[in-house]
Amino acid sequence: MSKKNNGASNALVQGSILAVASIISRIIGLIYRIPMQRILGDIGIGYYSTAFEIYNVMLIISSYSLPLAVSKMVSAKMAKKRRTATYQILKCALLFATISGTTVALILFFGGNFFATTLLNTPYSIFALRVLAPGLLVVAVLGVIRGFFQGLGTMMPSAVSQIIEQIVNAIVSVWAAYVLYRTGTRIGAVLGDKEHYAAAYGAAGGTLGTVLGSVAALLFVVFIFAIYMKVFKRQMKRERNVRVSSFGYTMKILVITVIPVLLSTTIYNISSIIDQGIFKQVALLQGYTQNDIDVWWGVYTGKYKLLINVPISIASAMAASFVPVLTGAYHRDDMEAVRGQINLSTRFIMVVAFPCAVGLAVFGLPIFNILFSSTRATNAEASLMMYVGAVAVVFYSLSTLSNGLLQGIDRLKVPVINAAISIVAHVIVLILLMLIFRLNIHAVVLANTFFALLMCFMNSMALKKYSGFKQEIKKTFIIPAISSLIMGVISYIVYFILYKACHIEIIAFILAAIIAVISYAVALLLLKGLTEDELRHFPKGTLIIKVAKKCHLL
Fold it and tell me: CA-CA distance, 196 to 187, in Å (whole number)?
C-alpha cells in the first residue's frame, strides 16, 4: 500500500476510533436524558438547553478551536521530528487556554443574568449558567492536551476521555437534577412559583454533571500526558543543533492559527443563540404564551437536536483526524494525496449520514416514545420536527467535515466567510418563515437546514478552487441516498407489521433497526456504491470484504 493510502487509511481508522467514542458518548447522553426529562419536564429541559446554548458559545470563544489549532501545529512540527518546537507550542497553548478559559468563565459567572434575561428572555436559566461557568477553564486545558495527542496521530486519549467524561456526567447530572429539583420545589413554594423554580434548580443540577465530567476527563488525560512526557522529554534531549522560535513568536503563530478557526466555529455554532433570541421574541409578538414557547424550545433542543447531533458527531471526529494528515500532505505539496483524503473522508461521511437521516425521519416517533415515554404529549411535535428536518443530518455532516478539510489545507479564512454569509441568509429565512408562514418552531428547523445546505455548497466550491478536488456525484451522493430510501421503506414495513403483531414498540423498533442496517448494506453494495478497494480503507475493511463476498455482494 502506498504512503498516500497508508496516511488516508490511518486517518480514517483514527477518525473511526474518535467517532465510535463520540457515538458511545452520545448514546450515554441519550440514556441519561431519559431520567433527566422525567425529572425536569419540557420546561426544565428548556432552561437546561438555554444555559448550554450560552455555555457552548462561550466555550467556542475561549477554547473550542484549540484542539484543532494545536493538532495542526503539532502535526506540522512532528512531521519534521522537531519535538522541542512541539513542546514550545504545547506550553504556549496551555498558557493561552488558562488565560482565555479563566476570562470567559468570569464573564459567564458575573454576566450570566444579561445573557439569560436580556439576551434570551429566559431568566430562570441563570442558575444553570453559573454552575457551568467553571467548566470553561477545565475544558480549555482539556482541549489543549487532546489536541496535542491528536497532532501526534493518536485519537485514543481523546476517545477514552470522552467516554469517561460522559459516564461521570450522566451519573452526576441525574443525581444532582433530582436533588436540586426537590430543593427548587421547596424554595418555589415559599416564593410562590414552585413549577419554575423547581425546573430552574433541577436544570442547574443537570449542568453540574457537565463540569464534573470535564474534570474527570482532564484528570485522565493529564495522567496519560504525564507518562508520555517522560518519553517525549528523553527524545527532546537527543535532538542536536535545535533552533526553537521564541516563546512570544510561537504564541503569535498560535493566536494567528486559533483566530480564524475560532471565528469560523463561533459563527457556525452561534446560529442556535440567534435562533433562540429571534424565535422567542417573534413568537411573543405573534401572541404565543411564554409557557408554550419554552416548551417548544425544550422539545427542539432536548429531543430533535439531541438526536440529530449523534450522527453529526461522526463528521466532527473525521474532521479532527483528517486535519493533521491533510496539513502534512499539503505542506509536502502532495496535492494528489490531499484530493484522495478529501474524497475518502467525504465518501465515508455520506455513507453514514444518509441512512442516519432517513432512519431518524422514519423512526422519529418510536424513538422519542421509547426514550421519552413520560412526555408523549410532545413526542408527536418532536417527530414532526424530525420528519421536516432530518435531512439536516446530511448537510451538517458535510459542512462540518468540509470546514475541517479547508482548515487542513491552510484556508482558515474561507470557512469564516462562508459561515458569515450563511448566518445572514439563515436569519432572513427564519424571520420570513415565522412572519409570513407562521411556522413557529418549525421555522427554526427549516432555517437551520438551509444554513447547513448553503455552507455545504460554498465549502464545496472552495475545496474545488484551492485543492483541485472535483466532487464525484453518483457514488458519493446518489447511490447512498437511493440505498437509504430502500432501507427506509423496507424497515418501516417491518416495523409496522411487527408493531401490529406484538404492540410492543421497543421490540418492533429494535428488530426493524437490525433489518435497516442489513438492507442498507445490501442495497449499497448491490448498487456498487463502494468498491472492494474502497472498503479496504474502512475500519475492519478486510472483514467486511470477506462477509460481502460470502454473501455474493461483491
Answer: 10
